[in-house]
Write a structure and sequence with these properties.
CATH architecture of chain B: 3-Layer(aba) Sandwich
Helix content of chain D: 25-40%
CATH class of the largest domain in chain D: Alpha Beta
Structural class of chain D: alpha/beta
Number of helices of chain B: 13
Strand content of chain D: 15-25%
Strand order of the largest sheet of chain B: 2-1-3-4-6-5-8-7
Bound molecules: thiamine diphosphate, iron/sulfur cluster, magnesium ion
Number of helices of chain D: 13
Order of helices and strands of chain D: EHEHEHEHEHEHEHEEHHEEHEEHEHEH
Helix content of chain B: 40-55%
Radius of gyration of chain B: 18 Å
CATH class of chain B: Alpha Beta
Chains: A alpha/beta (178), B alpha/beta (272), C alpha+beta (69), D alpha/beta (379)
Distance between the termini of chain D: 46 Å
Largest sheet of chain D: 7 strands, mixed
Oligomer: heterooctamer
Number of domains of chain D: 2
Largest sheet of chain B: 8 strands, mixed
């Protein structure tokens, strides 16, 4: 992996910013370089939003994602808005509620991220962490240990157990997939 | 289709608006158009002016002559408009930050001159647009992203401040008390001089969340429970008023309006 | 796609699901469903218009009788 | 007086007279030396012609009120000096992006900060071009005599209205305050330009739709029956905000093009003896007066000295200066600052001739001798 | 983390961390996108180190409070974006003439006016140099990565304190907001410069007496027992106002000389592949990152492309750029504006090579491809 | 030789001052140093801050830590000073224009925060330094060089304004009532929070001349005849008060001072 | 070159002749001469200090007894 | 007369600004060119002040007086402060109270301007107009008619007679001189 571009998208309140930060931090814990950026703008008040991460073993100069290798969408709106520019060799991961039939690329995973958060973990709010587990299980972008450490670094004190479970459940969804 | 009020006065192609779910600003904006409607004003002669902030987005949705200015300066732009054409009914829609932080000087001077402007402050006790910093009306002790350990500033009573500066009409209502709000805005517009209506709004996204005050419904319940109408207040014993705030018409004392006084000077030359 | 009952109109695509109308309806006419308001008990509606007055998104209102026209 | 149109008039007074002749009907300001007489004169004269004056609480409020009044249909002006100019910059940017005609007079004094409040200086040249944040077009005019103040104030209003933008009138303290002979033209002889009003009805009107030449949109006034929206955010032809990079580029480019495409109309300058000159003096405002004396003296001694005096100092008269630079051996740029306009002259000369400054930033005006010494190479 | 000093950090956060490491103990500000996180971070961190934060009523009050606090002995900073920067200019001039150390951060956004509040732009380059009225010295630094923000914030404080002047830190929205790997140096490894305190007693102390090198006066703090006077008027060595042209010239010249005489210390830049380059990319901030990628790509295709990245963008690295201009065939200056810094490059190149811009002012950052196209001559 | 008070506290080499004959500002400046003297304050810990104006020249004459800032901004600079070092006794000397026109926003916010600053307004009802333009305290109907036909603005009551904004001490005296002025300044300094003393001064050169109010002596006689002490006022029938103005201590209601509140936050980390 | 009488000191070079001290002296001690104040009737002075209190130019004052030293 | 430089000086309140304006206006009425400037600065609050006029039949470029041809001083302070730079061929006119013994130039007139205003005209305030009469009687810079017209143009309505007399008395002083 020279350089992987990741785009994480969903609706305003779904915590995708944190999702991107954790992923980038995990990469750094792994000794890699990472740059995380996000979209600001009036759309920050609800609507679709995205957070992007570039991970590389070399230095990263141009900081914006242009052709994502990995694309996550938790809502249909986000999917429609941000699916463009995907690399042909890219991977798409969408929540099961998202229709990604016309996806332009090779690998595509439709997974019950939101439902898992709501039902298996019991807190809709942690869907972003569930997603992280899923993404990493599929892509192996960072080490499991670093990912967990990064999650625990960034979540509010007192919610560690909850988030650890969310990560775990996220991982598990994929086992069913393969 | 939306209600006839909305269809009539709003720029339908800009709706739904961008404000967050439960944001009180929509309630205040509706109160403004409702007041205009009830007064049966000539809409071509209405000019709505705002500064910058979530609240200040309102004019963009309203189908009148509308002006979105720079942060804090709405009242100064409005002064130019009213002075240039006193026939216009000039209404300034502004936020607590826009009006009383960076815009505080223009507020007190527009009030002092008794310019014929009606100002409606969308007062959500926070800087919403920039993400939840404390404002001059954030209650002491509450948190903002720049007051992580609790705000130590005292708060402005915007109505008292405007009145001390020279406003000739002031009143306060909340988004819970929307009917009262409409009435105050109407009376404010009817006052020829400078009127200010402190419209207590709700920002669930930043103020509510930062201060664990819950969602809009919970904050509106709090507003309902803690607002006391001035009329009622005068009859209550002081202990019943502790921690409460007043709503209703707070001051109404018409005085010569600026552009009318100026007109006299101009006319002295036209006669001569 | 407005939902109507007894003069009460809901415009679901504008409703952001804040729940204000539901909480403050004196007659418990409304309820939330999938983050949108719906009419649970339309017959109880007294036409007071409080929901319209306080909806920040103009997503619920009472249809006017076309009296003036 | 013999001829009733010949008068002794102060520079600041001529600015007021010119403004009123140009159609100014609104002035908002805040007193500051050495511009105060412009506010004072406006407060006296405007009501006499049915216009409006207001003394605002500060300079920020003044430019804001001016923009508001202009949007309401009145030709509007404010006047200030350095410290006030610095405060107005944010809203000057607003007038630029929202395309609101207005005239901002800066009667310069010594800076930075409070500096030398009563002394002449030409220290705000670059500020006039670059003071506000972000890319924006600028027109700045610089008269050098009392009668030129009258005339150029009119031109400032004309350009503001024609191009729908703020126009800065830079003045020297010494010319603002001095009294000089002026011959007032007949009102009927003046060319007064008014903004283009909408040629279509409210239904068709797009407030930021470029006109046929791709330039300046037609402008309705608040209260005219066109209900339009104005914002300082990047906006499209309808006047409503947009985040689109395409819309942004189109807007910003159009704003700049209003100037670039109309240089012939906007650029004003005067040249004298440039035909055979090997030394060119390039000077503006009161410094150009000293340069003129220095040139005359040098010519008497047989030196081939010419004078180029930009009256429009922004946009920079690039093509003209480039031509001149290719013709002469050296250009001398006297300025009452540490070297501001000279930077553009050097850039445009691009090595084709020597470019040297004569600079003072000590509160005194540059004398003909200062320049003559430079011409002769004495220091 | 493996190495506890390696972190993922946001640019704005790195600015706060760097400032505190540099000794910042006072911050006054007013929120504005995209700089707000700097105020937020300061409000959180300062009390933890015994420092002071205050959210002022506006940007004018913020820079004023910063100057007051600096005079009282605390290293002080404020942060803002274009609209706020425009408002601060008058008092930045005050800090320049009264020689008050302070750091002003401008995280740029699209302008003019409210413009594009959340989009990146590099439109305030010339404003940083020329925004306030009057002649004044300027130091402006421009980091291009998160870890450089940390380091350059420290340098900004060092220069402010060493030269007793305001230092502007220009940042790009995209770097202020992005998160990147940073390796925090050990505190002990940092070089921190404090202002020179008076070496003489109150009786002998002259607050504006140049030091031995003719440069920077020693600085007492209010409350230290030196009862001195500070003004924004032109003043002599005692700090009291003077109208003398001699005193004025001496003051203004000394202020400018503080910089001119210390260029070696003040100028920071980076160059890569300039040895054999025939095409030179000259870029700063985030644009330099794209330029670096473009250069690497071009080199891979065998083109001789080099990169010069000024970190100190003001004063302009005149001598260095002149040298480079004489060595290369062309200089390409990519900027997220309509061409600002390029004007200085053109001036200094003085015709010795071609100077071309790659410009965008549409809210998008310039990509490596944009630059590569220019290198290859494709448009 | 001058009086020991002057010798002790003034920069003798800067005297005589530049103010016009009969300018009231000298009386106010003396009152300030007299108050400082009577309070026996440590002069090394006193910092005097001004803006720009005739009045704002005062600090240059006073032998303390002195700061002459930009027009209108004195209180914002002073806020930085006081916050940076709360040990300092910060006194702001300002004019009616400096403090309430361009500086109005900093006034209301310093008052709101209850910053430990004592502000003395040299209120001569005019912009003296720039030559006689009307100010926010020029009486309605009076003339200024920018109000050739009489001022149509209403005037600020600076004390009421400051109080409404949050000041915890306000008082007013005139240069005729110099003894009272000294007492109020002392009490203002003693108040830990934000204090404002409205010192009615006299500008014979511009205000007096423009309004044909005569020389300083005549204006001071007017002040003597029209000022009513608050204590006396409460006992007078309203008709006796018509057209008069109040002097004396107008408000005194100590509340937590800003820097003391901030200190608690800082200390919470030092303990922790 | 101060003029003194009964502890009353005048510093004529600072006096700008505004007449305030003269007008408000309760004992009519002072008078103007050539646009400077002078002592007309020093014996009448009661040492009230009002002249000093109101002189804008510090040009008239009462000499203090050197008590503290 | 190609170009005459005039410096009028006195104390702040003596109305020398008006004096300069009137002189310049008279020159313009005569069809000449004229430029009038004055010193601003903190000294404007009392102390010595000056007003300067250049009169020429050609265009005037550099607007400041450098080597006055005519110098008026009504007070000693003003004399001392502004007497420098006088042209050797210049004319000095001082009030009788001013000691101009060391005056560096050819012609010198010591005249009772202030006294004349006070006693002969009866209003100290009109010393500036008296001075104008005197100056013009000595120098003949402008025509008598234009001077009178300029005075009447610029003085407050109702004071015309007073000022006409002041001008006259100023002229007369010189008759005694010659
Ligand atoms: C000169 C300037 N300073 C700061 C900002 C950033 N800013 C935009 S809106 C805002 C505050 C808005 O708060 P408020 O007026 O209360 O409106 P709300 O968003 O809460 O409705 C700020 C600080 C700006 N746009 N311009
Ligand atoms: C930004 C700015 N605007 C305007 C001025 C000009 N100015 C200097 S002092 C002053 C008014 C002074 O009035 P006031 O504060 O009442 O003081 P006074 O001279 O009457 O004592 C003005 C408008 C300035 N120096 N700076
Ligand atoms: S951030 Fe707050 S004020 Fe702004 S739209 Fe959302 S709820 Fe409303
Ligand atoms: S108040 Fe309006 S937006 Fe909120 S739930 Fe009811 S209909 Fe929906
Ligand atoms: S009109 Fe009244 S009763 Fe009917 S739904 Fe609305 S709030 Fe309930
Ligand atoms: S102009 Fe007025 S305020 Fe200024 S010094 Fe003279 S009398 Fe005092
Ligand atoms: S001390 Fe009193 S009595 Fe004596 S001169 Fe002064 S005012 Fe008059
Ligand atoms: S009050 Fe002072 S300045 Fe005025 S006359 Fe008396 S001594 Fe002289
Ligand atoms: Mg708000
Ligand atoms: Mg004043």
């Amino acid at each position: 992996m020279a350089c992987t571009e990741v785009r994480l998208s969903g609706s305003g309140g779904q915590g995708l910013l944190l999702c991107g930060i954790v992923l980038a931090e995990a990469a750094i814990l792994d000794g890699l370089n990472a740059v995380q950026t996000q979209s600001y703008g009036p759309e920050a008040r609800g609507g679709a939003s995205k957070s992007e991460v570039i991970i590389s073993d070399a230095k990263i100069f141009y900081p914006k994602v242009r052709k994502p290798d990995v694309f996550l969408a938790l809502t249909q709106e986000a999917y429609d808005k941000y699916v463009g520019n995907l690399k042909e060799s890219g991977i798409i991961i969408v929540d099961e509620t998202v229709n990604a039939d016309e996806a332009p690329c090779r690998e595509k995973y439709s997974v019950p991220i939101l439902r898992t958060a709501r039902e298996a973990v019991g807190k809709a709010m942690v869907a972003n962490i569930v997603a992280l587990g899923t993404i990493n299980a599929i892509t192996g972008l960072v080490s499991e240990a670093s990912l967990e450490k990064a999650v625990l670094n960034r979540v509010p004190p007192g919610t560690e157990e909850l988030n650890r479970r969310a990560l775990d459940e996220g991982r598990k969804i994929c086992q069913n997939l393969r | 289709m939306a209600s006839s009020l909305i269809e009539k006065y709003m720029r339908m192609d800009k709706l739904p608006h961008i404000w967050c779910p439960g944001c009180g600003h929509g309630i205040v904006m509706r109160a403004v158009v409702k007041a205009i409607d009830e007064l049966e004003l000539n809409r071509e002669k209405i000019c709505i002016v705002s500064g910058i902030g979530c609240s200040s987005r309102a004019p963009g949705y309203m189908n009148f002559n509308t002006l979105h200015t720079t942060h804090g300066r709405a009242l100064a732009f409005a002064t130019g408009i009213k002075h240039a054409n006193p026939e216009l009914e000039v209404i300034v829609l502004t936020g607590d930050g826009d009006c009383t932080a960076i815009g505080g000087n223009h507020l007190i001077h527009a009030a002092r001159r008794n310019m014929g402007i009606t100002t409606v402050v969308f007062n959500n006790n926070i800087y919403g647009m920039t993400g939840g910093q404390y404002s001059p009306t954030t209650p002491t002790g509450d948190k903002g992203t720049t007051a992580p350990y609790g705000n130590i500033d005292k708060v402005f009573d915007i109505c008292s401040l405007a009145q001390a500066a020279g406003a000739t009409y002031t009143g306060r209502a909340t988004v819970y008390h929307a009917q009262l709000l409409i009435r105050l805005i109407k009376d404010g517009i009817k006052n020829k001089g400078f009127s200010l209506i402190d419209a207590i709004s709700v920002c669930p996204t930043y103020y509510g969340r930062k201060n664990k005050k819950g969602d809009s419904v919970r904050i509106m319940e709090w507003l309902k429970d803690n607002a006391v109408n001035v009329a009622a207040a005068s009859k209550l014993p002081p202990e019943k008023l502790a921690g409460k705030f007043l709503i209703g018409e707070l001051y109404n004392n018409p005085q010569p309006e600026y552009t009318e006084e100026y007109k006299k000077i101009v006319e002295s030359f036209q006669r001569g | 796609m407005a939902v109507k009952q007894k003069g009460l109109v809901i415009k679901p695509d504008w409703c952001k699901g804040c729940g204000i109308c539901v909480a403050f309806c004196p007659k418990d006419v409304l309820k939330m469903e999938n983050n949108k308001v719906t009419i649970a008990n339309g017959d109880a509606c007294n036409g007071c218009g409080l929901c319209e007055l306080r909806c920040p998104d103009f997503a619920i209102y009472l249809e006017e009788d076309e009296k003036d026209e | 007086m013999n001829d009733k149109n010949v008068r002794l008039m102060q520079g600041n007074e001529a600015c007021v007279e010119g403004a009123i002749a140009a159609g100014m009907r609104f002035f908002a300001g805040y007193p500051i030396t050495p511009s105060t007489e412009i506010a004072e004169g406006s407060s006296e004269k405007l009501p006499q012609v049915g216009g409006k004056f207001v003394q605002m609480e500060d300079e920020i409020g003044s430019i804001a009120a001016v923009i508001g009044a202009s949007l309401t249909g009145l030709k509007s002006m404010t006047a200030t000096s350095g410290p006030g100019m610095s405060l107005k910059l944010e809203n000057i940017g607003y007038a630029a992006i929202a395309e609101i005609p207005c005239v901002i007079v800066n009667v310069q004094r010594g800076g930075p900060s409070t500096g030398l409040p009563t002394s002449p200086a030409q220290g705000d040249i670059m500020q006039a071009r670059w003071g506000t944040h972000g890319d924006h077009p600028t027109i700045a005019l610089y008269p050098s005599s009392v009668s030129e103040i009258y005339q150029i104030t009119i031109e400032a209003f004309n350009m503001a209205e024609k191009y729908r933008m703020p126009v800065i009138l830079l003045m020297d303290e010494v010319i603002g305050h001095m009294r000089e002979r002026i011959e007032l033209p007949e009102r009927s002889a003046l060319q007064i330009i008014d903004r283009k009003k909408p040629s279509v009805g409210p239904e068709q009107y797009l407030p930021y739709q470029a006109d046929a030449d791709g330039g300046v949109p037609e402008m309705a006034s608040f209260g005219d029956g066109y209900r339009f929206h104005v914002t300082g955010l990047v906006h499209d032809e309808t006047g409503f905000p947009s985040n689109s990079s395409e819309v942004t580029a189109r807007l910003i480019n159009r704003l700049m093009k209003k100037i670039e495409n109309n240089l012939d109309d906007i650029l004003r300058y005067e040249e004298e003896n440039t035909g055979d000159a090997d030394t060119l003096l390039l000077a503006y405002g009161c410094t150009a007066r000293s340069a003129k004396s220095a040139m005359d003296a040098a010519r008497e001694e047989g030196m081939k000295v010419g004078l180029f005096r930009p009256i429009t100092i922004w946009p920079f008269p690039e093509q003209k200066v480039r031509e001149l630079a290719q013709r002469v051996k050296r250009i001398i740029v006297p300025e009452m600052n540490l070297g501001q306009y000279i930077l553009e002259v050097q850039r445009v000369a691009g090595g084709s001739c020597t470019v040297e400054g004569v600079n003072r930033a000590d509160g005194e005006i540059i004398t003909p001798e200062d320049i003559l010494d430079k011409i002769k190479g004495v220091f």
